[in-house]
Amino acid sequence: MVDKIFEKSIKKQFEFDEDVASVFDDMLNRSVPYYKQTQELTIKFALNYLNKNDVVYDLGCSTASTLIELGKHSKYDLKLIGIDNSSAMLARASKKCKAFGIDIELRNDDLLNTSYENAKLIISNYTLQFIRPLQREKLIQKIYNSLDKDGIFIFSEKVISSNKTLNKQCIDIYYDFKKQQGYSEYEISQKREALENVLIPYTEEENKKMILDAGFSHCETIFKWVNFATFIAIK
């Protein structure tokens, strides 16, 4: 379905409810620059590290697109686990998994409360930014502790610039991108208002510091477009 959620006046904060779940794949492709390309990049990097029966988590898996693509491209059988706290998202994820014939364990749970077994890979696509800063640092520590000694964490985030002028320019360029995808200025302003105090982005440097402070040996930016970035962290 085509994303038309913000054509009408929104009177609540953004949430991943049934309305959003029903158009989420279209929303991602039209709202996140180079989403498909960064997803492909995530999978290509991931395949360098994965072996038979390795455990992979996707935190905030939404409709499970990334895990499905990983399952399709891996030459090994993997234990794929998607976690999300939106039942609407997971219902759609379940249907997609069956349609593609990919075996994925889907958990409806809070990322901080659920237990993780030792994993080779943990993925988080535009999820951390929705977690409050203090809780975000706790989650990163939990991710680090849950990874095997040679495990990796691949995550994508919306980022901000510490330079106010550059940050404003980045936002303007991003809004131009959204207009090119068919969103009106009204839709853009409605979504911006709905996301206020819900989506809290860090700078690129803050993201890397948070990762290194948790104990990771290295954190590299492997893709960046204006105010969107993808990172790989090595334990």
From TrEMBL:
Signal peptide: none annotated. Gene3D superfamilies: Vaccinia Virus protein VP39. One of its GO terms (molecular function) is carboxyl- or carbamoyltransferase activity. The gene is cmoA. NCBIfam families: carboxy-S-adenosyl-L-methionine synthase CmoA (TIGR00740). Belongs to the class I-like SAM-binding methyltransferase superfamily. Cx-SAM synthase family. It comes from Malaciobacter mytili LMG 24559. Keywords: S-adenosyl-L-methionine, Transferase. It catalyses: prephenate + S-adenosyl-L-methionine = carboxy-S-adenosyl-L-methionine + 3-phenylpyruvate + H2O. It is an enzyme of class 2 (transferase). Catalyzes the conversion of S-adenosyl-L-methionine (SAM) to carboxy-S-adenosyl-L-methionine (Cx-SAM). S-adenosyl-L-methionine binds at residues 35, 60-62, 84-85, 110-111, 125, 192. Residues 56-151 form the Methyltransferase domain. Its EC number is 2.1.3.-. One of its GO terms (biological process) is tRNA wobble uridine modification. This is Carboxy-S-adenosyl-L-methionine synthase. It holds the Pfam family Methyltransf_25. CDD domains: AdoMet_MTases.
